[in-house]
Structure formats: C-alpha cells, structure tokens
Amino acid sequence: MRTSAGEERVGRTLGKYTLLRAIGEGGMAVVYEALHRNGNRVALKLLRPEVSVGADVRARFVREGYAANKVPRGAVRILDDDERDGLAYLVMELLDGVTLDVFARAVLDEQSGRGDRRPVPAALAVAIGAHILVTLSLAHDAGVVHRDIKPENVFLERSGTVKLLDFGIARVAMPGEKSSTVTGRVLGTPAFASPEQAYGRRAEVDARSDIYSVGATLFTILSGRLVHEADSPEEALILAATEPAQKLGTVTDIHPAIAEVVDRALRHERDERWPTAAAMGAALREAHRVAFGAPVPDVLDFGLGSSGHCEAETVMPSPRRRLVGVAAVGAVLVGLVGVGIPRSRGPVDGGERAPATEIHVDDAAAVPAAAPAPSQAEPPSHDAPQPAHLEAARSSGAAPSAPGRSRSAQLPKAVPSVVSSSRACGVDIDEDGRKWPRRCP
Question: Which of 171, 210, 344, 352 is most buried when burial is the number of CB atoms within 10 A of its CB?
Fold first, then answer.
C-alpha cells in the first residue's frame, strides 16, 4: 500500500509539535493534527519542501496566513509559525464541528426520502448567512477582503458559532496603498466567484466581491443549485463573467424578503449590490424576522450534539444523530484551510456537475521553475477566459445560447438548462486592450 508524502511525516516531531496524522494534502501544503508538548492539539499546516525552496515564498505563506488574525472574531486563529530545516509551517486552532458543504449534504441525504431538495432549512440558512456577514463586516473594516467565500470555507462549530476558514488568499489593504491594475488571472472558486473575479480583474475585487460570494453561498444552500450550472470550471467562469445570476425565487420556494436580499447580493454590477456586508447583514436579519417571526439567534443549533468526538457505532439513523456523526468526521476539517485540496464530490443536490475547482492566483508563481509539476491533487490555476475561449465555447454550445434555446443538452435532467437572458452587444476593452463581449441592456 502506497504511503503519501504527508503520511510519511506522521509520528515525527517538528519543533514543539508531534505530527499525529495527516488530515489534508494539497499541491502547496499538508495539514496535520498535531500535539504541542504542553498537551494541546492543534492543526499544523506545513508548506511542501519542493515549494519551500525560496525564502520569499515561505515569508508570503506565513504573511498571508496571518491575515485571519486581523479579524477580531469569527475567523480561525493562527496560533504560531516557525521554520525548521527550511520547512515553514503555520499552527492553527483545531475546531470541533463541520464545514457548511458537508453539513448541507448530510441534511440533504436525510431530506431526500421526503422529497425535500433544500439542503439547509431556510431559517437556519439565513441565520448562518447573517453570522457570516458579521465576520465579513469585521474583516472589511480591518482592510481584509476574503476573496473565496463558499460553503467549504464556512465552519459550523458544535458550540453553535460560525467561523470563516481560508484567509490564505485574502487581500489586506495597506495604508496609502494604491490599487494596481492586474487583469487576466482568476482568484477564487468559479462556482462562487463574482463577475469581476471571473474576468480576472483583480483591481476591481473588493468587499462587494465577497458580498456576491455570500449571495452565491446562500443561493446554493437554500436551493441545492449553483448560481450558474456549468460542465467545467472554465464554463463557470464564462457564465459568471457574462451572464446575470438566476433569481433565487425562480429555482426554489422561498419567502420574497429573503430572495430579495440574496438577489441584490448577486447583481452583476458591483455598484448595484449591497454596499457593505453590514448593510446586507441588517437586511438579511430583517428578512429572517419577516419570514419566520423571530430574530436571528446569537447561538445556532446545528444538531451536532454537545459532546466531543463520537464513535461511529453510536450514530443512529435520525437527522440529529447523523449530523453528530458528520461532526465527528469534521472535527479537524479546519485543518484543510488554504491547502487547496481537490473536491471530487458532486453538488449538494447530488447531480453531476463540474467540481468547484479552487483557483489560487499566486500558486503557479510560488512554485519555482525547477519544482516538479503539480500532481492531480493540486487544483489547477486558470487564466481568465479570453475572447477566443468565449467564442469557441459559444460556438460549441458550452456558453449560454441565444434566448429561447436550451444552453446544453448534456446537463443532468435534475438540473434545468440555463437560458441566456442577454446577448453580447458590441465589446468592452479592458485595461490591457483586450476585447470582451458587452451585455445588452
């Protein structure tokens, strides 16, 4: 039986920490559950040796990791960092709970027998969204833009709190800093990326981009569908860049007050979205009150139980007990933060769909030229879709068709075909002189 590179280090000591087991591997790093010499368990993220050859890479790895600590609460704490034998690592708190995508899938499994396709109960989904927005508001006030909000990066703690993971690609605004114009590289996850991220216009990515991604996350956990159904990450980028988002109320039965908040977050133009995370949070809390007759609780009940790890054989076939078992598996999932572990699982509704491939803009630059090519475990880094890609995709049927025509007959029957609501009317020219299709009014 083959042993992965990460597993080979299990049992070894790294500074003050003993590596107990590998809990996640990606192209850039391996994450371990580790034991400090004082007896505390932590998550330790170790940069791979082949990536750690440059001091600048190691410094950036640590610097970006600490972005989370600029957020007063609601983000995973970075506890320590060190470098031993040229290997850089971060030490993070080890949370007890489960990521939102795993939670949604477990709920959906329980609901499917009753014909309910909504991954998360609406009241709980809205409450989770409100808690996410509190943390994002604090992050934005601290000058931190997350840039990769999605269900996998939302952690539901057994204690009833919500935390954001993976500030590893966050952007921290420095005093007096001017935005540089960089176009052509994509940062984020296609299925939850804002139009400006999909275009690769990094200078335009700001707090409103995070707001779009929160809207996309709520859309998914409320409906069981992605904002833009696609057969590949590239197609997802094309749709996000050129097509308006579906209205939440058209794909699921939801209270209009909730749909209105989510739909505004998903507006194609940044200026038409909620101006701040705080504004969206206030609107979402009001929608919760209108729809359910109660305020958003300060502490949420995810049905994960109150004990620590539970043994698999004690899990009973009821929704609450099923989720307790899920929590036991997910107790160390926080260790996956920022690793870029591939996700081969399907969408939350169980249909076949393009995976939510993670795209980290700087990963390629961080790997020295002499380093071996990334393995299949590392998600690819993509360029923003160029005009040739758009034209080729449209001519092959991959991009949205003209109004009235089904976009693709290849999508699963459980997923409705997406019909384009706008055609290209002329072109826009970006900062680098490239031409892009302009949406019709």
Answer: 210
